[in-house]
Amino acid sequence: MEAAQQPQYTVSARKYRPQHWDAVVGQDSITRTLKQAIDQEQIAQAYLFCGPRGVGKTTSARIFSRAINGFDANDQEDYAFNVFELDAASNNKVEDIRSIVDQVRIPPQQGNYKVYIIDEVHMLSQAAFNAFLKTLEEPPPHAVFVLATTEKHKILPTILSRCQIFDFHRITVPDMVEHLKGICEKEGIEAEEAALHVVAVKADGALRDALSIFDQLVAFAGKKLDYATVAEHLHVLDQQTYFDVVDAVREAEVAKALLILDGIISRGFDPHHFITGLGAHLRNLLMSKDASTVALMEVTDDVKAQFSTQSASVDLRFLVRALDAVNQADVQYKGSNHQRLLVELTLMQLASFTEAEKKKPELTPVEAGAWSGETTQPKAPATPASDAAPQPQPPPAPIPESKQAPVVEQPKAEEPPQSAPAPSPVREKPKAPKVQAISSLGIAAPSTLMDVVKPKEPPAPAATREQPVTAEAVKKAWEAFIVVVEKEGQFNLLTTLKATTFSFDASTITLTVLNRLQTEQIREVQLRLNHYFADELENDTLSLVVELAEVETSNAAAEFMNDRERYDEMVKKNPKLDELRKRLDLDLLG
Q1: What is the pTM for the complete model shown?
Q2: Which of 56, 91, 303, 404 has the smallest count of CB within 10 Å of its CB?
Q3: What is the CATH number of the domain that holds 251?
Q4: Are 228 and 240 in contact (CB under 8 A)?
Q5: Tens digit of pLDDT for each residue in 136-170?
Q6: Cα 251 from Cα 353, distance rounded (Å)
């Protein structure tokens, strides 16, 4: 007797491949558009399905080809004469495309359309694309092309312009988990939702990858899948590890955090994998701070509750600073020569944030309460903290003076004037920050000195100095400025200043230069000269004017002429010199 033939095993990716539109997972907008186009008989000559792997491009192309021909998905009849599939990865030559072009002319034996599905169309050569252009633009009425690709950017724009483009997106984790639940019911497999969630996250948006991982887990664990088994087999760090790490660093238990990290590494996990997972965990804690952002977390409901519990005990400022530290470690990981030490230092840094916040709360990068509606409590300490932040360095300078001057009595004498205008908030605003900022550091004397000295400075620029000025005083100031320029080593400017003459009339100082080059040099330092004369002569009403000398030719001016100017002066004296230059065919370099 012949042994009973064992049923052939079929992988889930093929066994549960969608055969109709309702079974396509996570592409509702695309399937609805294609269904309406078929119902309205608006069939284009070419379609382009693009997107990542395993999201249903080829499956949708097959469903579409059967739908436009009215074929039943359950019918086992071979429709090879209506649907042609070509793998462009291995058939990318001109001859392969020409064979399609020759077949396009023949109408279908049954049905209304001949559909050509070209997978991985971006693998076609340049010559094959060119041979395909004309047929793709004006095919016979019975021909429809469906092109599928994972790399849309590699397709020629001339091809894209001839197609209706549909962008398939990655399948979300909830949609993938629901699809896996349905398969588990059909196969009689008991699976925890958390375990299926790990599979969906590991698949990274590709349903075909998720089904392959699912088959692997079933072969390993049998008909029962729990979270621990799936996490161990897929080599995924469980969520509880990250919860324990955050609790350890929040309690400043550096040793406990380092021991957890050592246990993770001893289990064969890469430290970079741990640091990226910790960043995702901190991000989820941040999302749990507000009910409106909880939906951004791709975790199960019980894990969301666990995140909410831990998030309630973690300060917002800690989360933001911790995320920044973990992100820096992630960026620096590949370039580090001691990668484990980098991760350990990051954990030490996280553990030190709690004490740092207690000592210097003003260093927080985000104002507490900005994430949620609780804004009344954090904003109270924000004002003194922000006032104290800019003032830690200036106070030490006047400390020696405070020891010599009787500064203890001065604040008492000035307190009544400060308390008198207390009802007027407009007058108190400029003085209040100074007193609070310095008194918060515990230094009373410098605040008194600053209040005494600073009011004297603002009136100085406001008052206009108008001391009498004489020509002799201007001359002395001019000579002193030349000495300053000489000491600075600005020899080009020094030469110009020595060749410049000046005159003084009332409140105007006129500087006369010999050429335009000197004019530009003087104007570059004109603002400096204005301030210099005003300070030296104690007169703010003085004005400085730069003029060009009217003398056309002189021995002094000739020294500052360029070659072209000298030649022009020579031609004015002897015009025949220019005729000689022209006869000799000479050019002027200037």
Answers
A1: 0.57
A2: 404
A3: 1.20.272.10
A4: no
A5: 989 999 999 999 999 999 999 999 999 999 999 99
A6: 10
